[in-house]
Amino acid sequence: MDDLTEKRIGRHGYYIDHGNGTVTDIRTGLMWMRASEGQSWEDGIVKGNAERFRFDEAINIQKIYAGHCDWRTPSLKELVTIVDKTRNSPFIDLDVFPNTHNDRYRSSTPHQYSTHLAYSVDFSFGSEDRCGRIGGLYLRLVRGNIQPSKLTISTTGNGTGHVECNPALPTYEFGSKVTLLARASANSIFMGWQGDIICNDASCNLTMDSSKIGLTH
Q1: Conformation bin of residue 195: beta by default, left when phi > 0, alpha when psi is -120 to 50
Q2: How far is residue 21's CA from residue 182's CA, in Å, rounded to a whole number?
């Protein structure tokens, strides 16, 4: 098993630094290379120039690094998880991924209607993009699978009531939407949310970008 006891890094503390040029995102369970493909990680610094890859090169890439032999090109769903909207040009946490190009990075996801197009993420805008399969784009490798997120709801205070979740599932895929509705029983009053849920109303929408704990009071 991978050792996840090492220090957390990044603006939000989302990433565990393994000290070998890789990090694990605690929200998704995915392990990422800190350097773009073509660059190198030496003494805690990203060095060299990133290379550009065609789509066929990206999806067929094989690499052994940091003791793992299953590094691959991320899917579009995986690549968008490292977009950081609190940053700007590039929209990524540079404390975690130094020297990331303010440009498009390839995903392994082909366009559903065209054999000439595929999907990428443009970190200069922090958004998905369509691109040709022939032209060269930058690449960051990943390993593992996105882990489902859990939502735990508890009630506090002296009143009674319950919370309805729609959809009500044991776990949620990363980025899925959940609607919460707190219903107070007779002679009880809903006072608000606590924990990971930031909302002022009894009904609120939640994006499952990590496992969350919510409290009502």
Answers
A1: left
A2: 44
The CA distances from residue 92 to 52, 66, 141, in Å, are: 19, 23, 15
Sequence ranges of the domains in the chain: 8-143, 151-216
Rounded CA-CA distance 204/170 in Å is 19
Q: How far is CA 190 from the centre of its chain?
A: 33
Which among 177, 160, 161 has a CA at the least distance from the CA of 212? 177
The DSSP letter of residue 37 is B
- Tokens 């939640």 correspond to what residue? 206
One-character DSSP codes across 90-151: S-S-TTTSTT--SSEEEEEEEPSS-TTEEEEEETTTTEEEEEESSS-BB---EES-PPPB-E
In angstroms, rounded to a whole number, what is the distance separating the alpha carbons of residues 160 and 187?
9
In tens, the pLDDT along 12-51 reads 999 999 999 999 999 999 999 999 999 999 999 999 999 9
- Report the amino acid identity of residue 140: R
Q: Is 198 exposed, middle or buried (0-12, 13-18, 19+ CB in 10 A)?
A: exposed
CA 131 – CA 20 distance, rounded (Å): 32
DSSP state of 39: B
pTM: 0.84
